[in-house]
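Hello support,

Our group uses your service weekly, and this is the first time we've seen a run hang past the timeout. The protein is Putative membrane protein. I'm not sure whether the cause is the sequence or the server load. Input pasted verbatim:
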Amino acid sequence: MELAGYAHFWILFSLLSAFFHASRLAVTKHLSFSFSAQALTLYVNLTSLVVTVPLIVWYHDFPLEQPAYVGAVLFGGLLSGFGGWALNVAIQRGEISLVGPILTLTPGFVVLIEWLITGQLPSLPGALGLALLMFGSYVISLEPGVKSWSAPLVTLVTNPGSLFTLAAALCFAAASTFGRVAIQLSDPLSFAVMVALINPLILFAIFSLQKRDFYNEVLSPEVLRHARPLLGLGLLFALMRVADQIALSLTLASYAMAVKRSAGLFAVVLGRWLYREERLLAKITGTLIMLVGLLLLTFL
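Update from on-call engineer: The timeout came from a worker crash unrelated to the input. Re-ran successfully.
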């Protein structure tokens, strides 16, 4: 599939991915009261097949004879799977209005990974952007009546919701880098189909090793009672993944991930609206600071 002629649409696909992602967080929070993080991670990958498997009719460029492609698919899929699990744990233990903004750190991790691989450092505006990302995450962690400047930093790495969100951001950053390699060897939608096919198998094997009764949990009667929101979650996840891969094929990974992180604002609003989550001003302020940082990091 040739998308070079539509390169200027990358920002549209990144914004669509942001919207689908924030909506997915809200639905995941609702389902987290009934399912474990492992079960939710598997369900979202399974139900997303409803959208992604039919695409194989048109998009089936799978160069499995190329070791680079196979490695990128396996490592990218595994990292995105673990990132999804960490994200579900974070949502289960924290607030989506906190999880969404902290994921804004993902492009910073992309820059770090690209530096480790290529040795290239960000420009001065980029370094300032990274500093604003860090400061924005600090503001988001501010609690009323805080007495020490270091308290928000401690909260960021000790609060279960924040800690698992940081782990998810790191996994997603690494996965996006591998994803770009695989896309260059095939095409974005073929890669989305391939990852959608292998991820449920990998995740089921890993979670079954973690919990011997995981099979019974997956077949719980709760699944039928929550069939509609589970399908909705899979649909949002699949649409997010497709929009992600198209955006990654049209621009740099750091650019696409930066715009997608505008999902943080959507998540803050949805968290307040649906779950009456608190500290709205601090979260919006911190998210806006981080978005300014992303602009400096990626566009200057």
